[in-house]
Structure formats: C-alpha cells, structure tokens
Amino acid sequence: MSAQAPSAVILVRAERFLPNPATAADNAFQRDVPSGQSDEAVSATALAEMDTLADALREAGVRVHVFADEDHTRPDSVFPNNWLSTHAGGYVAVYPMYASNRRHERRADVLEMLKSDYRVQAIVDYSGLEPDGIFLEGTGAMVLDHVSRVAYTARSHRADITVLERFCTDFGYEPMAFDAVDSEGVPVYHTNVIACIGTDVAMIALEMIPDEVRREQVRERLSVTGRTIVELTEEQIREFAGNAVELCGRTAEGRRRYVMAMSARAKRSLRPDQVAAIEESCEIVAVDIPTIELAGGSVRCMIAGVHLDRRPTADAEPTALVEAIDETAETIDGQDLVDADVDAHADAHADAG
Q: Is the pLDDT assigned to residue 64 strictly greater than 80?
C-alpha cells in the first residue's frame, strides 16, 4: 500500500457553514455568498455537498469518519486538515491556527477516536505557539511527500518557517519552502491550493513560484521521485485544480483502488492530456461542491487523511503470546494495587490492635 494515499479520512459535517470573514483578508480564493441567499439556505446546501463527498468516498471504498459539528461559531470547521495531520508510525500533529475564531475547531473527540481505532504513539501539539503569532496550518500550509519525506511549503501568514522547521525535525521531513504568488503579486495563502502530490503523479502550478532558481529546484525535487508532473496554470488553480488528494480505496472484490478526489469544478478545468496523465495511476473521483468553495477551499481542504495503522477489531484472533499470558497470569490494573495496599494497611492495623 502507498504511504502517500491514506485509506481512511476524517470529515467534519459543519451544520453552520458560511465563508469566514476572519480569513477573507489573505484568502484570494474566498467569495461572498450570492445576494439573496439566506445563511440557513447556504448551510443546508453545504451540508448536502458534504454528504455527497462522504458518499462518493465510501463508494470508492475509502473508510470515512464523519464528525458532526453543531457549533455555529465555527464556520470553517469543514476544513479539519488545517489543525490535524496523522503520520505513519503512530504520530499525530496538532497545529497553530491563524484566525482566532478557528482555534476552537480542534476537537478532543477526534483525537480520542484516533487513539481508540488506530495505533497512536504520540500527539505533538504546536498550538501553544498561537500567542506568539506563529502559525502553521497543517496540510493546508504544507503539502507533504510522505514517501520521500519532503514538506513543500509556500511562505505566508499561515506558514511560519520557524515552526515548519520544528515540525520537520520532529517528524523527519525535509523542509522545502518557497514564495508563491498570483499574477497580481498576492501570496498564495495555502500551499495545497497550488500543489497535490500523489503516489505516481504530482500536480503543481510551478509558474506561480516567481524565483526561477527555486522553481527549478522544486521541479527537480519532485521529478527525482519518478512522479509524472502535471503542470497547472494559474487559471486552473483558481478553479481549485490543485486542491486534490489521492486516497486508497477498495473495489467490491477487495482490491486496492487509488483515486484522486477533487471537485467537479476542478476536473472541468483540466485539459484532456492532464486528465490522462492523472488517470495513468489513479481514477478521478469528482464531486460538485460550489457552496463550500465559496470559503476558499475545496475537496483537499475538507479531508484530513488517516496515515495510521488500524487497531485490530475486538473479535480478531488473539496471538499466541496473548493466549499464553491469559493462561498463565491474570493481569491487574492500578486500582487493584491501590485496593491491595489499603487492605494490607487495614490488616496491619488490626494485628496491632
């Protein structure tokens, strides 16, 4: 199985979705709600789009964990990949968020689910950097090559290079930072709107990296991995063509099925030769989410991939070692030790009396 394409994802079903005014200043992809549409109508339409994405991923054989969010103060909670990432070996990262009204998107119940259903060894929490004005918004700020261990990062208010280097040291990645701007010189707010790295294909808008030397270094770093590079234009980026993610599903017969999840709008922007290059290694699963895209993010932003090993199910066959332990000794927990200690003290007191 590819280390790049997770077979399980986390989605948040935000019942009160609206474009977040606190993020509009530096998100050039964000749009206002069309006039005449009520907040309730926008939220209802967005919910239907979220459900459609979840259904499409399940249909592709991807395991989908959906968390409901009834909190009306979290308009961007549909984008969990900004506060959470998971990594092979049992590691989880929690990130510092740029907009103050996004910081309570971090949820203990999501972390508890990961610990109960998957093998989690450590959770590294960088959110304490927020009071210092230091931010790194997860796999929005970074596009990670999980195979070659490279963190591609466009500098922005939401991607501080100091914390990027800390993350890379902690998780064993090579930082590859660069500047990326649109034709009007506006910095790209999140790297994952201009780049997507799959197992055998990478989509990226290299033309949006103005430094020619750095642009060629990024191209070379991607090429050396053997991936096919699909170069995207700025016009395609504005249609969210870069905001895609490769996942590993299953066919009805149980065979692995690699899919590239993106929005229908993103797919429509691709040329036939680009679609063909992507489909050499994975099939495209496209879902129409125009309401959610008003917030400046698309399918990739909605998905937090689970790169963790799943815990065995309760009815799994026990190993020989577990059986041997069960036969030879009854294990005790901490409370048993406390109770035994209390009983011993009581017996000693009785003997003394």
A: yes
